[in-house]
Each structure stands twice: as C-alpha cells, then as structure tokens.
Amino acid sequence: MASLVQPMLADLAYWQETVLRGLVGLVAVLLPTGALVYLFLYKMMSFMQSRLGPMEAGPFGQLQLLADFGKFLQKEDIFPAKADRFVFGAAPFVVLVSTFLLVLALPAGPDAHFIDVNTGIYYALAVSSISVIGTLMAGWGSNSKYSLLGGLRAAAQLIAYELPLVLSVVGVVIMAGTLNMKGIVEAQNSFGVWFIVPQFVGFLIFLVSIQAELTQPPFDMPQAESELVTGYLTEYSGMRFLLFFIGEFATAAVFSAIGATLFLGGWAIPFVDPSAEFMNWIGPLVLAAKMVLIAFFIFWFRITYPRFREDQLQKLAWKFLIPLALANIVVTASIKVAIDL
C-alpha cells in the first residue's frame, strides 16, 4: 500500500516512486494469486477428491507452482495462421489490466491503500467489466469457431451476472451511506456488526455473481472443455495462456478481498479501533485471512457442483438473482428510512 510507505518515498525521484509503487502492486496481485492456487487448486481440491495432489516438486509439492510457471515460460507462444495477431496477442493483457485496476481501489488499512476515492466501489465494479472486452478479443482474434463460441458465451454470461453483482452491493451502500470503501469499513465498525448479518441475502447474491464473473464451475460455459475444447482459450499457449490463468485467479483473490471489505469488515478487527496506526501493519494480514475465507467458498462450489446448461445459467440470473437483489434493495431502503425517521 501506497500511503503506508509514504515516509520512505519522500526522498525518491518520481520515477523511483512510480517503480516502487508498481512493484508493491505486483506483489499485491501475484502473492494472493499464488496462495489461492496452492491452497485450493492444488491441495483442497485434491483432499476433497480423495487424492494427494502434487507431491514431487519440493516438500509436499510446495514448489509445484514454480514448476508450472517455468513450464509455461518454456512453451512456444503460438499464433494461429489466420488469427488477428494484434487482437489475439493483446487479449490476455486486457484481462490482466482489469485485475490490476481492481487492486487500486482496495484498502487494507486506514492509510494502506493505493488510491482513496469517494466512489471506490463504483470504480471497482466499473473496471471489473473491462475483462469482458479481453474475453471477446480472445474469442474473435483466434479465428476459431470454438473460441468464438466461447467468447460469445462469456460475454452473455458476464453481462447477465454483472447486474446482480452491482445490485447486491447497493444494499451495503445504502446501509453505509457512502461509496467509499474505507467509509464502508468504518460504517461497519460504528454499526457494531459486519454487514454480512443484515445483508446476508446480498452476500449470497454477491458470492454467486462473482462465481459467474470468474467463469468457474458451475458457471464455466465459456470454457466448457466437453463442448468447446477450452472455449476462448483453445488457441492460446505458453505465456499468453499463463496470463489468462493468472488473471482468473488474481481476480478471484481481488473479488474475495472486495467481498471481505463489503461484508466482513475489511481490515478491521471487532472491538479494535480500525483507524489506529498499527492497523496499517496488521490490517493487510486481517484482510488476507478474510479473503481466504471467502475464496474457500468460491473454490468449494467450483469443486462440488456440475456445470449448468446455458438456459439454466441465464434463468438463474434474470429470473431469480436480479428480482431477489431488487427485493433486498427495497427492504434495506425501507428499513433505513424507518430508522432515520
């Protein structure tokens, strides 16, 4: 976090400060991503399926992540003969940029943040939509029927589930009275209870929506390997495939952290002043623990449930989640007005 290291940056040149901030941002994205891949994809999934998972690379497979990373770096970066080279090559970077922009709005302490804007949650939900453009670019630029169908499925799915995602957050904003993410954390502290209690319905809608936004099972229609090989990823290899992989799990980590901020009090600890100076150091650890808790549910659902049909996926969004989210907003607003009166 940027403001946390401000005293150390005082004597640095602008370019040095920018490089340092960029490195901190890189760590803030890649470290949680690696942790989620190792904890859930390698280990938890294995245990739930009664197998050991990777055990050879390092003690108990702890270096498997580095081994996979090295494997992808060595693979040839193939461009299909008839692909649109620029669109095909740029697509994974567009998806990854969306994730980095999300991290900017995430506070991890009273002064531990990159940016502090009054419309923080609005900004986060807006930039999360950029990934749809990258997915469509991958599907179109590959010049493959499988990829194009996967890209179109992804666009339809992400558009459908962005609505309940946004609506699930409105109840929190009404209760907190602010769009500022630090303000939402402080509002939960003054409220005396995390917003997951009064906004449990909103939390469930948020959880289902981010599962669909990540295109993870049971919402993995855009990548359905039994139907589309791997959908919009079919023609990708090497480093560009790795970038898509990093983008998926990094976005899972960031969305989990946003969920922890909105519904679980963010960096705050019950009965501890969230604005205390030492929370700048403890806060990131607290937020990381809450992030892992929400990510557990995301990967639990991924491992447990079979894939929806396309019609079931759309019906869930349009006929169930959106009406339920609207009802939650009406109830929350009514109670808020009644209390204020």
Report what the structure shows.
By secondary structure, the chain is mainly α. The chain has one domain. Helix content is 69%, strand content 0%. The two termini are 40 Å apart.
Which keywords apply here?
341 residues; mainly alpha; 0% strand
Briefly summarize what is shown.
The protein has 341 residues and is mostly helical. The protein has helices spanning 6-9, 14-48, 64-74, 85-104, 120-127, 130-141, 145-176, 181-191, 200-213, 225-228, 238-263, 279-304, 310-340. It has one domain.
Structural class: mainly alpha
**Average pLDDT taken over every residue:** 84
Per DSSP E runs of 2 or more residues, the count of β-strands stands at 0
Strand content: under 5%
| Total discrete domains | 1
SSE arrangement, N to C:
HHHHHHHHHHHHH
Overall 3D form: globular
Task: Output the number of helix runs.
Answer: 13
Uncertain spans, ≥5 residues at pLDDT below 50?
Answer: 1-5
**Rg estimate, integer Å:** 21 Å
Let me know the largest β-sheet. Answer: none
Q: Estimate percent helicity.
A: 55-70%
Q: SSE layout and pairings?
A:
Layout: H1 6-9, H2 14-48, H3 64-74, H4 85-104, H5 120-127, H6 130-141, H7 145-176, H8 181-191, H9 200-213, H10 225-228, H11 238-263, H12 279-304, H13 310-340
Helix pairs in contact: 2-4, 2-11, 2-12, 3-11, 4-5, 4-6, 4-11, 6-7, 7-8, 7-9, 7-13, 9-11, 9-12, 9-13, 11-12
